[in-house]
User: Fold this.
Amino acid sequence: MGSLEAALAAFRYHPEEDVGGLIELPQSPLEPEPAARGEDVQLLAFALGSDEYAVPLTTVTEILRARRLTEIPRARPPLLGILNLRGTITPVYDPCVRLGRPTEPGPRAGPDAPPAARPVRILVLRTLLGPAGLWVDRVRGVQRVRPEHLERPPSGPTGGVMGVIRQGGGAPRTVVDPEWLLR
Amino acid sequence: MSPERPPAEFSSEATETAEALGRSLLLLEAGPEDADPELLNAVFRHAHSLKGLAGTFGQQRMAELAHAAEDLLDRLRLGKVRRTRTVLDLLLESVEVLRRLATDPTGPAREARALARKLSRRERTAQRQVEDPLDRLELPPDMRRVLTEFEEHRLRETLRKGALVWQVEVQYPLDTFDQELETLKARLHGVGELISTLPGPVAGSIDALAFLLLVGSGAGEEALRRAFAGSGARLRALGFRKARAEAGGLGVIEPPLEGGVAGQTLRVDIARLDGLIDAVGELRLIGEAIRSLSEARELSPRAWAAQLLREHRQLVRRLDILQESLLQARMVPLQQLFDRLQRLVRRMAREAGKDVVLEARGGEVQLDKRLVEELSDPLVHLVRNAIDHGVEPPGLREGRGKPRAGRLTLGAEQQGGRVVLALADDGGGVDWARVREVAVQRGLLDPATAEAQGERELQAILFHPGFSTAPAVSALSGRGVGLDVVKTNIAGLSGVIDVESREGEGTTFRITLPVTLATVRGLLVGVRGRVYALPLSSVLDIVAVEPRKPGHSEGQSTVSVRGRAVPILRLAEVFGLSGHPSPRESVVVLGVAERRLGVVVDSLHGQRDLVTQSLGPRLGPVPGISGAAEVGQHHTVLVLDVGALLEEALRGPALLPVSA
Amino acid sequence: MAASLTPDRPLELCAFWVGSAVYAIDVARVDEVLPRVVPLPVPGLPEHVEGVVHLQGATVPIVDLRRLLPAGTPPRTAKPKVVVAWLGRRRVGLRVDGLAGVQQFHEQDVAPPAQGEPGPVIGAVESREGPWRLLDVRALLRRAPA
Assistant:
């Protein structure tokens, strides 16, 4: 068999072709490799009520002060309203709904919306479907964490929760996957 | 390492057909110059069958050669090529090679390829008899691209009359350029014709605009210079390119159609430009006011601050208007693209030896310039497809009782936050049986279930990469890219494409695009403290409602407008808006086709030109809302979807409320 | 004449720009082409893997081919895309600088690779627009730094 021939045969696609060892993916994107390469994970930490959360820093494109949202009629939670960010319409959501925690009743858009509390911020996140905003009560800041300090859920990934960080004696911080949060 | 022999039945049939072709060619040669049309048709048919036969049995080289011969013969019988000695010799030589290929597919491989090339070159140089004089004019391709069909026509007329086309570079002051252009036209009367006004190559100064004019004139340089006397214009007559030698290149230079870097200029309506210049003028006035404020010593600090604030508000308002106008200037009507396609259709039809006419509608729909550019490639490809494969050759069409000329219809329609573009041909329709066949051949369909696949599944296959029903790659179908690339391009604009086909009647491709930028003249209305916009084109009437009397029933469901009962819809109720109704409500009567709907609103806030944006892919369709627009700083209003509201009034809420 | 047992066998290629060169893969590998994608970064993946995206429930890694093949400037008309390709029974997203087209060839059209071509390039064909280098994606990934 000529070498070109063999090469062409390998070049063509067969569903049964050998792909062993090509890309070892972690079990799921929510499960970082156990033997992680010692690279710190960068997070954007925020608070919802008295609970602490974080999202991967790379997904955050902007942090805005709370501003008046435009109401979408007949919208249901978790959609709070929309923002016009330099020409792009960006929907803003209430993360509490997806996380199953209590949230403020009442509109946050439209003329009946009360003015937001001073620490409230809108995190603009980048997702597969474009930008989306998260209404959070307070932003704590950027946190660097060593991968071994991220405790993964014992029974595997549980709905969007990438892990929990218990450090420095403070409240535990839940790290969530924005794609899941904004699905 | 012997190559596969083709099946016996192929060899015998192919040989027979090739011999029949040879015999009829000899008859043609022996006959008069003015050949019997029946004989010509017979020759063409033989070549055509041979091509089909070769294609079916996967005999690539034979199919290629037969295809080239068929094309040349088609042009021969349509009178587009003269029956010369050379043409006949080439054809007879091809028949020889085809005969040999019938039994020995790889034998005369090189000759077959060379012959095929010679045949197609022959066919192309023969084409130059119907050359477009405009192609030889030294017109830069990107200038050619922006010309309208009328301008091209005027240029052709100029050349036909033996006159010259002059390129004039001139600058006119901002304030008076429109008058200057009018004066120029008057001065040119009798001397020449101002055919085209284009942006100048070098940017003008702060106070002047640079133009590049195309002027047709047979009066000679002296007379023309006199017409431009005193304007500082630079004149240059456009020359002609030498005719290309018969070295086998294309005689026609086709300007590239992609947008890309070359297409960075924009043609803007003069009226729009005027509007922009006015806006800048007003900004200057505010600048003046602020300057004199700085010198006003008699005002108290408080009065001074108040005055400054007032000017600031004015400034912001003017800047908003300017920004909006500039955004709108980026909007170009689809007509530009349609015009380009018109020219392409003529050329492609000529090359394909078919008669095709393109009808376009909806050219006034405006889209962001970039979107229009991105649509160019996929539309060109679809048009090519329709001409190459959709529309049948004129002879076949007549045989089917259709008019000789194939008809392509291109239509654009704006529906709320979407634009739908449809390209329909009245050709033979998609051959679904053949699609099935090829799909099975290429392993895209399981032969066991192939029959069961309906049109929807087969549609998906049509757009699959690597699918093509052409047995041999057509010289005319361009770079061998398929419908899959069209689909990808459209997907890149967040759009979708689908196809509908009726056997024997034609095929329609439909592209639906969400439009992120579109202008709408809107009526702003207030409902319970919220402001919405209604497209003014759908507003028929505005009627005041009787002030509420205490105890007045809320149940009123129609209102009488000019003697006609119009059903009404209370937006506050439909949208579930809290708050109190205003004592002075209005009913905005909307109309779409025959249907009417009155929408009850609390207040009216005037008309604005709005640049609307789509709500984005996340939210999906929001019932009753077609998009959003910005009015003033940080104030976004929703644009109402009239059609949806009409439906809702008739049937009740159609979709579930929006959440995410 | 290339040494192939089946010279006439059709070979349909999908080609794309990586830098200033055009590479091609078997069109049967191509599942879809995405216009823009923002992968979710996952710690512990090699350099050339930008992250993953979820497509129809499956996790698809995105490989930046520009890190694995010689660089250069792509043509200005090219638009970056992600070609989702099948490797065995999994899909991988290949980030490229732009699509160059789909064209059918035959095995005999394949010329052996020139001297100095990187290993995973197994040959080249002459397309209407210029040379396309046949890329064995599996071989490319096998050699990539872990």
Summary: Confidence is low (pLDDT under 50) at residues 26-37 of chain A.
